[in-house]
Design a protein that fits this description.
Neuraminidase; Phosphatase 2c, domain 1; seven-stranded antiparallel beta sheet; alpha+beta
Length: 694
């Protein structure tokens, strides 16, 4: 039976000759999730995605590609090699479709590796390279580093069928893997062999940093047996590269989630306990001497004094207990303090790196200051409201806001729901309707007249709009989306089985439901809209928008296909859509692109006057404000924690972020109230309000 292996993982990210503390944007290590496909349950997936040539996208682009690659791998079936080829083919198809649409072209290099039992399969498309070190031997991948023609292949997004290079290795304890961008192949092989065979993975990272030139994007991995301790990072290593994290990759049972790279708390804890034990032993020894002086032992043959015997016995028990408690309290408080101080030092160093990047390097500047915010967020998790960290946050936000034309706003918590994941919000007058997709419930709350609070005791669950509810003869399934019907003045919800539930705001306890025809045609519906009584359903899985026509107050016919003919647009990446008062449909993709359609035919739409390219790096949802005095689109980008506002033609109006960015970490939806000048934002289980005015 193969050995059980774990992976010690570290990163090296150098921009403009300076080390960045954060992991490279496209670096990802993921163990099999609970719902992994059969045959994938025990695999560990490694990937590194980075720019191709001069084509540089925002950092979130590479993060999303890495995450999507892992998701595609663990959701597929078949052999490891077939799974990796499917990952490359899928991502390549997405990029080819994007590039053929006339938008700005994107290309990417991608390295992947999969650990299964004692086999390691490494694959790549583009210009990525790797080395495998085993028993002092250095095995370059995909070819000897002097063979330039073999090292550089076409990246993803260039040709219809990706050029995949692949190799398989049998690993043993101590085997090391380095995934990197092309500069790795330029390093002196003898010096690299010396570095990669260093004492531990932390030394490997420090050595690679010394060898690297002005830029480097690397992931270093060491495969070890479970009893191998994590290395303690040397001070120099901590200042130049991320300290290794332990990623469990068991053979007989599913792996535990990977730990985030960072200072090894496990190692520090062991070291602290060892120090505490030694200190406790010394204290106990000193106390013993003191006890002997105050109450010397009786002379041999003399009668024993009960008080001393009793006192000595009590002290013999209580003193060690007290010392252990004291030592643990001191050690635990000291550990937290030490960890916080180390984190502040890391944040300060990252800020120094960001300040040193040339002002004309906008991409590098934004990446560095975003890395500062990430490190500060981690420090705030240990101890919030530190003045030094607050100053760094303000400085980072100031630089990012100036370059990206971002307006910061204070957030006001309107209401929260227990154990919820809010994904959709509808505003009708002073009533807010929110969909909790985690529990499949729809709530209504009533806002105060100024829109900045909730009327007491108005937060209520709509009984018919929840999973397993009974409405007439029907049982409700998983709710896909909610919408407002202007024709019937009702809130409506659609479940995944084609059941449409309608409720009047005045009679939420009494709702109606009807079964739509032909829901078996649907593949993956994600959103619904109502316009002039017609029901529209966005179904990226079917590459279609379904349209149900009303007849006598019901939908009595099978749906029409909004997009007909052979020249249908690619909708597989669509995440949301909306309809304006003229019947134009706006479709939003996860890449942040918006397309506009009228009767199934494309009409002109383009983002204009944005401070960056691409205008919106990624997107999760949208809201179309049809108010004649404030028409526009609001697009939510969870990855950048930003809400973008444009006109209906695509002209940039503003972009909004929260001063307290953690409030928008799980941002999923937005709705605007033109009358109050407010936006209501869903994030996690809460509804926040922010003002459009400063």
């Amino acid at each position: 039976m193969p050995l059980e292996f774990e992976a010690l993982v570290g990163h090296l990210y150098i921009v403009g000759g300076r080390s960045i503390s954060a992991a490279p944007p496209g670096a990802l290590v993921e163990v099999a999730p609970k719902k992994a496909a059969r045959g994938r349950e025990l695999d560990t997936f490694f990937t590194l995605v980075f720019p191709s040539g001069d084509v540089v996208a925002p950092s979130k682009f590479y993060e999303q590609m890495a995450a999507l690659g892992a998701d595609r791998y663990f959701s597929g079936t078949g052999s490891v090699t077939a799974g990796l080829r499917a990952v490359f083919a899928s991502l390549n198809d997405n990029l080819m479709e994007h590039n053929s649409s006339g938008k700005r072209r994107y290309e990417a290099n991608m390295l992947c590796a999969v650990l299964r039992d004692d086999e390691l399969i490494v694959a790549r498309v583009g210009a990525g390279v790797a080395v495998v070190q085993q028993n002092g031997r250095l095995l370059p991948f995909p070819a000897e580093f002097g063979q330039d023609e073999a090292l550089f292949g076409p990246p993803l997004g260039v040709q219809p069928v990706p050029d995949v290079k692949m190799a398989k290795y049998t690993i043993i304890p101590g085997t090391r893997l380095v995934l990197g961008d092309p500069p790795l192949a330029d390093l002196d092989m003898d010096k690299m062999r010396e570095v990669v065979t260093a004492a531990d993975i932390t030394a490997v990272l420090a050595g690679l940093k010394d060898l690297a030139a002005a830029s480097a994007t690397l992931v270093a991995v060491e495969f070890v047996t479970p009893e191998t301790p994590s290395p303690v990072a040397a001070p120099e290593a901590e200042s130049t590269a991320q300290v290794p994290a332990l990623v469990e990759a068991p053979v007989a049972a599913p792996a535990a989630p990977a730990k985030e790279p960072g200072p090894s708390v496990e190692v520090r804890a062991r070291k602290g306990l060892r120090t505490a034990a030694l200190g406790g032993a010394r204290a106990l020894q000193g106390t013993s001497h003191l006890l002997d002086r105050v109450m010397p032992p009786p002379v041999e043959g003399a009668p024993r004094r009960g008080l001393r015997a009793l006192t000595a016995t009590g002290l013999a028990v209580l003193i060690p207990v007290a010392i252990v408690i004291l030592v643990l309290v001191l050690w635990l408080s000291g550990t937290g303090e030490s960890e916080f101080e180390l984190c502040v030092q890391e944040a300060t160093r990252t800020g120094q790196v960001a300040r040193g990047i040339p002002s004309n390097d906008v991409t590098g500047t934004l990446a560095a200051w975003n890395a500062v915010i990430l490190v500060v967020d981690r420090c705030n998790g240990i101890r919030p409201n530190d003045p030094t960290l607050q100053g760094l946050t303000r400085e980072a936000q100031g630089v990012i806001d100036a370059l990206s034309r971002i307006d910061r706003r204070d957030t006001l918590t309107i209401t929260s729901f227990p154990n919820a994941a809010l994904t959709q919000v509808i505003l009708q007058g002073l009533d807010l309707y929110v969909l909790d997709s985690q529990n499949n419930w729809v709530y209504r709350v009533t806002l105060t007249s100024d829109g900045r609070g909730v009327v007491p005791n108005t937060q209520q669950l709509i009984p018919a709009m929840r999973r397993n509810a009974t409405v007439g003869e029907f049982r409700v399934g998983d709710i896909v989306d909610i919408a407002w019907s202007a024709e019937t003045t009702q809130i409506v919800a659609l479940d995944n089985k084609g059941l449409l539930i309608s409720c009047s705001p005045r009679f939420l306890q009494s709702c109606e439901a009807q079964q739509l025809l032909a829901p078996e045609r649907w593949v993956r519906p994600v959103a619904i809209m109502l316009w002039q009584g017609r029901l529209y359903i966005l179904d990226p899985g079917a590459n279609q928008v379904w349209r149900y026509e009303p007849s006598g107050g019901t939908y009595a016919t099978v749906p029409n296909e909004y997009f007909a003919g052979e020249s249908r647009p690619p909708l597989q990446a669509a995440v949301d859509f909306s309809i304006d008062d003229k019947g134009n449909i706006y479709v939003l993709s996860n890449s942040g692109e918006v397309t506009k359609w009228r009767g199934g035919v494309a009409t002109p739409f383009a983002f204009v006057n944005f401070p960056s390219d691409p205008p919106i790096p990624s997107a999760d949802s949208m809201f179309l404000n049809s108010d004649p005095t404030a028409q526009g689109l609001y697009i939510v980008s969870r990855a950048s924690r930003t809400i973008y506002e444009t006109t209906l033609a695509g002209t940039f109006n503003a972009s909004y972020r929260a001063f307290k960015e953690a409030d928008f970490t799980l941002m999923s939806g937005v709705v605007a109230d033109a009358g109050q000048g407010l936006m209501y934002v869903l994030s996690g289980n809460s509804v926040f309000a922010i003002s459009k005015q400063k």
